């Protein structure tokens, strides 16, 4: 029971009309690990994430989050995960504290417990002293850490982050990832998508998704060894090139 993975799925598939956005993806994410999703724009990373978060119903396939079925127990799953969507937006006209209060209300938290949790998260995000600042005036990096704090209010066991650092400067990205690693050290499982290879390098495992298909999955070291390359950038480029050659030979890729 204790060895049960935090997240698993089998042959997860999503069609949008004639578009096969996610094609038979199977994966397992152990508890307390940081799992990274990589892949070009439009590959299906967000679609997999949304199905695993219980937000989007798969066309076929199955999945479990902490043992709960993504098809039939999505409401329960939502209580156990913190989710930051790709276009996550704070209420810009509200202050830092007001945003946290708002999300605490959504999660049904109140009283001294909620107050304590809010203070903890403000400290974790390095937002102490900025509680009264209007969120819209925070820089990109601060906003993302506030958004992360909002996603953590209900003490989720799993954190699902869809490109949390897109457009954030390198120093702020590093600070954000230090927080991610601290959370993983505390036992929280993290599923995160990114286009930044320096971030992917620090994940425990990486899944490379290419136009709906999970091409490879493994530790950064394993992936580099398998493709006989020195960097994850090269792994990525080699995979994309091999797929492009393959699709040229096949005369098309995934429509139908
Ligand atoms: N609700 C939807 N209706 C129709 N098509 C969709 C929908 N959501 C996603 N798609 C399509 O599914 C494919 C996968 O999209 P998805 O957003 O999952 O990719 P992604 O890997 O997250 O890309 P990015 O790196 O740009 O965020 C794309 O072709 C996208 O246009
Ligand atoms: Mg996406």
Features:
256 residues, alpha/beta, Rossmann fold, six-stranded mixed β-sheet, four-stranded antiparallel β-sheet, 9 helices, 10 strands, 39% helix, globular, binds adenosine-5'-triphosphate, binds magnesium ion
Briefly say what this structure is.
By secondary structure, the protein is an alpha/beta fold. The chain contains 9 helices and 10 strands. The strands form 2 sheets. Strands 6-7-8-3-9-10 form a 6-stranded mixed beta sheet, with helices on both faces. It has a 4-stranded antiparallel beta sheet with strand order 2-1-4-5, with helices on one face.
Provide an overview of this structure.
- Helices cover 39% and strands 23% of the residues.
- It has helices at residues 45-52, 74-80, 96-106, 111-124, 140-152, 170-185, 197-201, 220-226, 232-250, and strands at 7-16, 19-29, 34-38, 60-65, 68-69, 81-84, 158-162, 189-193, 205-210, 213-218.
- It is globular and about 60 Å long.
- The strands form 2 sheets. Strands 6-7-8-3-9-10 form a 6-stranded mixed beta sheet, sandwiched between helices.
- The longest helix is centred in the C-terminal third of the chain and has 19 residues, at 232-250.
- It is an alpha/beta fold and 256 residues long.
- The chain has a single domain (7-255), classed as 3-Layer(aba) Sandwich (Rossmann fold), CATH 3.40.50.
- It contains 9 helices and 10 strands.
- Magnesium ion binds next to α1.
């Amino acid at each position: 029971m204790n060895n049960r993975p935090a997240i698993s799925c089998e042959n997860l598939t999503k069609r949008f009309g004639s578009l096969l956005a996610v094609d038979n993806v199977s994966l397992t994410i152990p508890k307390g690990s940081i799992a990274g999703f990589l892949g070009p724009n439009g590959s299906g990373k967000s679609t997999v994430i949304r199905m695993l978060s219980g937000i989007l119903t798969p066309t076929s396939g199955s999945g479990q989050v902490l043992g709960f079925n993504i098809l039939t127990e999505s409401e329960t799953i939502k209580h156990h995960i913190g989710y930051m969507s790709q276009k996550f937006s704070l209420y810009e006209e509200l202050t830092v504290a007001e945003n946290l209060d708002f999300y605490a209300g959504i999660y049904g938290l109140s009283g001294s417990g909620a107050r304590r949790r809010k203070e903890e998260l403000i400290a974790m995000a390095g937002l102490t002293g900025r509680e009264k600042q209007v969120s819209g005036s925070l820089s990109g990096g601060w906003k993302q850490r506030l958004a992360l704090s909002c996603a953590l209010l209900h003490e989720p066991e799993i954190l699902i982050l869809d490109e949390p650092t897109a457009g954030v400067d390198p120093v702020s990205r590093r600070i954000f990832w230090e927080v991610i690693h601290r959370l993983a050290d505390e036992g929280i499982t993290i599923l995160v998508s990114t286009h930044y290879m320096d971030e992917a390098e620090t994940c425990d495992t990486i899944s490379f998704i290419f136009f709906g298909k999970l091409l490879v999955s493994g530790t950064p070291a394993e992936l580099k060894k398998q493709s006989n390359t020195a960097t994850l950038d090269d792994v990525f480029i080699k995979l994309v090139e091999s797929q492009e050659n393959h699709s040229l030979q096949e005369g098309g890729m995934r429509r139908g």
